[in-house]
Amino acid sequence: MSITADLRLSVAPMMDWTDPACRYLLRLISRHTRLYTEMVPVQALWHGRAERFLAGHPAEAPVAVQLGGSDPTQLAHATALAEQWGYDEVNLNVGCPSSRVQSGRFGACLMREPELVRELVAAMREATKLPVTVKSRIGVDDDDRFDQLCRFTEQIIVGGADALIVHARKAWLHGLSPKQNRDVPPLRYETVAALKHDFADLPIVLNGGIRSLDRAAEWLGPLDGVMIGREAYHNPWLLAEADARIFGDRERPLPDRKTVALAYRDYVAAHWHARIPVTRFTRHLAGLFQGLPGARVWRRTLSEAAGRKGAGPEVIDAALAARESVISTADDVAGMAVSVR
After folding, report:
1. Secondary structure, 3-state, 118-179
2. Which of 25, 136, 175, 313 is surrounded by the most beta carbons within 10 Å?
3. Which CATH number applies to 5-245?
4. Is 48 annotated as a binding residue?
5. What is the pLDDT, as a whole number, of residue 334?
6. Where do the annotations place FMN binding (predicted)?
7. pLDDT in tens, 152-173
8. Does 109 qualify as catalytic in the annotation?
9. 14 annotated as belonging to a binding site for a ligand
10. What fold characterizes domain 257-340?
11. Is the pTM of this model over 0.90?
């Protein structure tokens, strides 16, 4: 089945970041951008922890779950659970370079075992009617020849993958931290474009280093989609025009930042309780006003107020009020300056 149109723009799965609260916030900003969960270890689901790892909000859709594992039976089980829990896509992680993931024989190290990946994809394909996709690198360590990437791609196609998402850097499994692996290996967009040329019928999505809708739009055509990572987290408002510009939905009015903040406050109020630090929710809001007057006081108020004992959703109101006060004071000062002239 083809999901090409749905993959035009997405936000990458990011550990410790793209949790349900983050996804709810991003969905308030863009209706159509596809969202991904943090990587979910299939072994945890195998041992009955579906509620913890798969629970979300219906409003998050379209949303994909990313799975990490190398056991076909466990992956099939997790894939079936993902369908039961209402996800729109199941994605296999073949790109994470962390040593912890390698020790479990999954993530980027699987690129060296394309036949095993084929088996994993086939097991997932058999377990669901949902699209099954793979997220990979362009290679690992010195195994980064184009023919090796093509061999890997051939195998996931045989397994039944519906799309391939490619982080356009290779991964160094030893010598670089996961953070360094996101920046140090050079981006090789031309490799991803060449892969699409050779596998024209396979939807291919570009990931890595994309920081604006303008840059994303440049790759829509040569490729089937673009996935944005950290920039969408630190500056979520870059998604505000995505529905119109990327998906052609010009009927939905452009969202308003304050309205989004208040709607998110209502979400926090419904899900927060005294045993949960409210920072678990408010941390996702830090970049909401990035680039606008009052952004600094917004971030500072959120951080300071949310860190106090017993703080709850009201800290979002306090941060909004603090920002508006700063803006109002600045406007008054500007007005006085004009009158003096």
Report:
1. HHHHHHHHHHCCCCEEEEECCCECCECCHHHHHHHHHHHHHHCCCEEEEECCCECCCCCCHH
2. 136
3. 3.20.20.70
4. no
5. 45
6. 13-15, 66, 135, 167, 207-209, 229-230
7. 999 999 999 999 999 999 999 8
8. no
9. yes
10. Four Helix Bundle (Hemerythrin (Met), subunit A) (1.20.120)
11. yes
